[in-house]
Amino acid sequence: GRRPVFLSDDVVARLLRYDDLIPRLEAVLGKFSLRDSAAVVQPVRSVMPVVDHNGFLGLMPAYVAYEGILCAKVVAFYSREEGSSLPSTQATVLLFDPEFGNVAAVMDGLDITHKRTAAVSAISAKLLSPAQSDVLCILGSGHQALSHYEVFMQLFSFKEVRVWSRRMEMAKQFAASVQGSVTVCSSVKETVDGADVIVTVTNSSEPVLFGEWVKPGAHVAAVGACRPNWRELDDVLMRDAVIYVDSREAAAVESGDIILSGAKVFAEIGEVLNGTSPALREKTTVFKSLGMGIQDAICAKLVFDKWKSNQ
Ligand SMILES: NC(=O)C1=CN([C@@H]2O[C@H](COP(=O)(O)OP(=O)(O)OC[C@H]3O[C@@H](n4cnc5c(N)ncnc54)[C@H](O)[C@@H]3O)[C@@H](O)[C@H]2O)C=CC1
Ligand SMILES: O=C(O)C1=NCCCC1
């Protein structure tokens, strides 16, 4: 048997759990930040425009040598009209046998993308949010909003959760779809007023979150705006906050919030995990997330190993 298995999104979703994922993501982010190519190899993804359809196709290879994982995710992401029923992101993950180079498993990559992104934001909040964090805000109400809500509810004890979406009925739908209590707000300013942790998970290419509205000392996990000319955060926030990223190389070529504001990157989250850079949680902090192939690789191996052990 060299024939790859195919694992559909529902199978992946059943097997992938945040409590398994988070310690492994912390480990791989730390290893990545050591820039030890004997342990981890991960180039910045290559992204190709799909001009006719207002989208992009990204190729995200990674070799996590210390875990024996060879993996590549192919991810398509599109700017959709508000209210479009078409998905904005689609992803497929290929898990290879690193010795032979054959594909051992092909997995739907959507649940992996939702969960690992949210888990990494939660790791940033563990490290950088104010010691006493009572109010969580989520800007956007799509797939990432939901996975972020789930993992933040699992890991933290916020007293209040607020959500904003450009179309208020979408925010209401989001609030109705989750178990806990969520306050629906009608403006971003109102949503983030006095908030301790703010998650931005929109498809916007213009700033939605402005520094003048953000409480000093708050932590922002900024997940959207993954193109060099797209923004979610304004210049004031980028200037006033201490900026953390997942990968310095990726931030320098992909993050409009960093490139266009001229903000300086203070540290990678992996450097904080390694203890080589401090977690300045008393300051206003932004974690600019772009997503990394190593994160998908860790998920794919976890899922495949669990799937095999159930056979
Ligand atoms: N950093 C990372 O690792 C990853 C980042 N992403 C990015 O996260 C963002 C959210 O992804 P999903 O939740 O999967 O998308 P989605 O399509 O499920 O939800 C997008 C949300 O953005 C809102 N939105 C769209 N245009 C907007 C605008 N101009 N202003 C304000 N809100 C707007 C929509 O109403 C919706 O609530 C996207 O930008 C995506 O590319 C996605 C995967 C990984
Ligand atoms: O890391 C990912 O996966 C993605 N990042 C930004 C765009 C959508 C997918």
TrEMBL record:
Domain of life: Eukaryota
Any one of the GO CC terms: cytoplasm
Catalytic activity entry: (R)-lanthionine ketimine + NADPH + 2 H(+) = (3R,5R)-1,4-thiomorpholine-3,5-dicarboxylate + NADP(+); Delta(2)-thiazoline-2-carboxylate + NADPH + 2 H(+) = L-thiazolidine-2-carboxylate + NADP(+); (S)-cystathionine ketimine + NADPH + 2 H(+) = (3R,5S)-2,3,5,6,7-pentahydro-1,4-thiazepine-3,5-dicarboxylate + NADP(+); L-proline + NADP(+) = 1-pyrroline-2-carboxylate + NADPH + H(+)
E.C. no: 1.5.1.1, 1.5.1.25
GO biological process: thyroid hormone metabolic process
GO molecular-function terms, A-Z: pyrroline-2-carboxylate reductase activity; thiomorpholine-carboxylate dehydrogenase activity; thyroid hormone binding
Family membership: Belongs to the ornithine cyclodeaminase/mu-crystallin family.
Quaternary assembly: Homodimer. Binds the thyroid hormone triiodothyronine (T3); T3 binding inhibits enzymatic activity.
Protein name: Ketimine reductase mu-crystallin
Organism: Pygocentrus nattereri
